[in-house]
Amino acid sequence: ASIHPSIHPFHPSIHPPSIIPSIPSIPIHPSIPGTLSPSWKRFGKNNVILSDIRKPADNVFYSGPFIFADILDYKNLREIVVNNRITWLFHYSALLSAVGEANVPLARAVNITGMLHNVLDIAAEHNLRLFVPSTIGAFGPTSPRDPTPDLCIQRPRTIYGVSKVHAELMGEYYHYRYGLDFRCLRYPGIISADSQPGGGTTDYAVQIFHDAIKTGKFKCYLRPDTRLPMMYIDDCLKATLEIMEAPAEALTMRTYNISAMSFTPEELAQEVQKYVPELEMSYNVDQVRQAIADSWPMNFDDSNARRDWGWKHDYDLAELVTTMFSYLGSDSR
Ligand code: AKB
């Protein structure tokens, strides 16, 4: 018999028996397409299940299992977990900062209801190890910004940030109260060649590569001196798998900052100009995104992650730009 969260409080001792395969099954959201390759290599293609409410885009190479999963539909999620004997769940569904401000009710439904009522309860009910990404956006104007430590005041002023603080606190509460194996990383702005910008405040740092290659021009919506923490996708994936595989005894906390580099639009443009020397930068500040960026960390203190589970980034700004152009091709104009 299964136990519905609204009827019974969770405790590890009352979890229904579950059959746990020797290798974890991991539903992964395709908004980070690169997620697939490291996890396939590590766990085997058939043990990693990709899910979304839409078919994968034609340009996303994908040949492993793919299923429809709607995080707003509790029964659908439960069926997936039971039928596939899921053991680990990576929960990426979320509306990002800028797009969340444009549609607060949807952001609330996806980021809070989907997370609170569904993912946490399913994970607790089925004894899953649960990964939920948080973000630099979980901090706000009253947080220390340079650097921002793991534990400090968090009063974000976006629905995205509020939903992420909520996720951090709920995950930790379920961990301490019911033994849920909740693990969470606060990501900087993530940059990758194979995913398009998706409604975030840090998106300019992805768009600049596409525009530099296509048109040789880039109009930035943030001021030239706006410093934000950023990370290349491979480091993000490495950190995510590392924290999921870390022995529980190594974790002195359940939500960690991770960091790799911090830069401003001006500094990024200088690096991009090494590949596209004629790049013309201009600035047309969007007040909404500028206000969000001005309330976020400038530098992220990730010393706890480095100490507890050996986090170490591989990509700095120069390496990031070289790698982006090696994928996108600076001479493909
Ligand atoms: C955003 O800009 O909203 C995201 C984030 C930093 O969480 N990329």
UniProtKB/TrEMBL annotation:
<comment type="pathway">
    <text>Amino-acid degradation; L-threonine degradation via oxydo-reductase pathway; glycine from L-threonine: step 1/2.</text>
</comment>
<dbReference type="Pfam" id="PF01370">
    <property type="entry name" value="Epimerase"/>
</dbReference>
<feature type="domain" description="NAD-dependent epimerase/dehydratase">
    <location>
        <begin position="57"/>
        <end position="258"/>
    </location>
</feature>
<dbReference type="GO" id="GO:0006567">
    <property type="term" value="P:L-threonine catabolic process"/>
</dbReference>
<dbReference type="InterPro" id="IPR001509">
    <property type="entry name" value="Epimerase_deHydtase"/>
</dbReference>
<dbReference type="GO" id="GO:0008743">
    <property type="term" value="F:L-threonine 3-dehydrogenase activity"/>
</dbReference>
<dbReference type="InterPro" id="IPR036291">
    <property type="entry name" value="NAD(P)-bd_dom_sf"/>
</dbReference>
<comment type="similarity">
    <text>Belongs to the NAD(P)-dependent epimerase/dehydratase family.</text>
</comment>
<dbReference type="InterPro" id="IPR051225">
    <property type="entry name" value="NAD(P)_epim/dehydratase"/>
</dbReference>
<comment type="function">
    <text>Catalyzes the NAD(+)-dependent oxidation of L-threonine to 2-amino-3-ketobutyrate, mediating L-threonine catabolism.</text>
</comment>
<protein>
    <recommendedName>
        <fullName>L-threonine 3-dehydrogenase, mitochondrial</fullName>
        <ecNumber>1.1.1.103</ecNumber>
    </recommendedName>
</protein>
